[in-house]
Amino acid sequence: ADVADEAQVMAMFGALDAGLGTLSALVNNAGILFQQANIEQLTAERINQVLGTNVTGYFLCCREAVKRMALRYGGRGGAIVNVSSAASRLGAAGEYVDYAASKGAVDTLTIGLSR
Question: For 30-54, what is the mean pLDDT?
């Protein structure tokens, strides 16, 4: 599934529900980056594509996993692993600052969701 597309995420989790039964873990590992570029070379289209997959996709998958795993929804609990990057702390200056920013958002999502 293209995790940046909410309809595809919903279809993917629907297929998991039908084929696998109880969900107990999610690993968010999807990520995209493009050719190295300075900030002045970045377009809104590129930035939005990176954020769509690397941030929105993680949010959507976490949302659907929580609906299935959380005790408050009748689930049995579970674990979510969000794969990030050292670039979130280092900034990837002059290379992939859009990617680094997206992974910073993943770090924040992970902390907030775990609390």
Answer: 95
* Cα distance between the two ends of the chain: 28
Catalytic residue among 58, 73, 96, 99: 99
Q: Tokens in use for 38?
A: 């300075």
| Burial of residue 43, with CB atoms counted within 10 A of its CB: 0-12 exposed, 13-18 middle, 19 or more buried | exposed
Asked whether residue 94 carries a pLDDT value surpassing 90, the answer given is no
99 noted as active-site residue: yes
At 53-69, the pLDDT tens digits run 999 999 999 999 999 99
Name 22's Cβ contacts closer than 8 Å, sequence gap at least 6.
68, 75, 76
